[in-house]
Specification:
The protein is of the alpha/beta class and 248 residues long. The chain has one domain: Rossmann fold. Helix content is 40%, strand content 19%. The strands form three sheets. Strands 3-2-1-4-5-6-9 form a seven-stranded parallel β-sheet, with helices on both faces. Strands 7-11 form a two-stranded parallel ribbon. It comes from Streptomyces arboris.
Length: 248
């Protein structure tokens, strides 16, 4: 039986990856700060050796926009080396090498650490999740008007489809950097905000707002998009409808 460690196993993506791998018959170890079996704070690294010992593959889903991803990756890579070098699968983001956003720069640094680690590795970049777009527009909708970044398009992808891809990669051999996984449609942010308002029955005026800075310019230029890899199938409207059925 294949033994696989999933970091960030209580998160949106990690939880689904762990479920799919168990369905495939793998022995899955779920690691997170709140895990009942493998409670590890990756930014400190304590307890990693026992979690990694004897695993065939590590799927690294844990991440934090608050920082520390490179430190966490360093601890994980060192533990993997001590454990004999399991296959390391890493989830990254389309545009980390094109959009000068601090979080993206950190994700690219982790990619480079993994590429230089000497471990057998697979790196999968995806476009933004539907969940992220929903979080942004639902938060903005609390205001009297709904502001969105002017001139920015997004290519959201379903986290379940990403979980399917990561599970398949985890059960395979190291493949290096694999083709991007993009959502089915490139959409104006304002259009996605409108879809959210229609799905929730809320009334707000969508107001495009021009922002400053190199990161905003990178997003306006589409550095975070991958239209040539629009292989996802679940649209944002379908995601919203499914979520509404589940919560309703």
């Amino acid at each position: 039986m294949t033994t696989i460690l999933v970091t960030g196993a209580t998160g949106t993506l990690g939880r689904q990856v762990a479920e799919r791998l168990r369905t495939e018959g793998a022995d899955v170890r779920g690691l997170s700060r709140r895990s009942p079996s493998y409670a590890v704070d990756l930014r400190e690294g304590k307890g990693l050796d026992s979690a990694v010992d004897g695993v065939d593959t590590i799927v690294h889903c844990a991440s934090s926009p608050r920082g520390g991803d490179d430190r966490a990756a360093g601890y994980l890579i060192d533990a993997a080396r001590r454990a004999g070098g399991p296959h390391l699968v890493y989830i990254s983001i389309v545009g980390v090498d094109r959009v000068p956003l601090g979080y993206y720069t950190l994700k690219r640094r982790v990619e480079q650490m993994i590429e230089d680690s000497g471990l057998g590795a697979t790196i999968q970049r995806t476009t933004q999740f539907h969940d992220l777009v929903l979080s942004v527009v639902s938060g903005a909708a609390k205001l009297p008007v709904l502001p969105v970044p002017a001139g920015v398009s997004v290519q959201p992808v379903d986290s379940g489809e990403v979980a399917d891809r990561l599970a398949a990669l985890a059960l395979g051999a190291p493949a290096g950097r694999v083709p991007d996984l993009g959502g089915p449609e490139v959409r104006e942010f304002s259009g996605l905000a409108g879809a959210y308002l229609r799905a929730t029955g809320r009334r707000r005026r969508v107001v495009p707002v021009r922002l400053a800075g190199k990161a905003y310019a990178g997003f306006r230029g589409g550095g975070h998009l991958s239209p040539e890899h629009a292989v996802g199938t679940v649209t944002f409207e379908e995601f919203l409808a499914r979520r509404h059925r589940r919560t309703g």
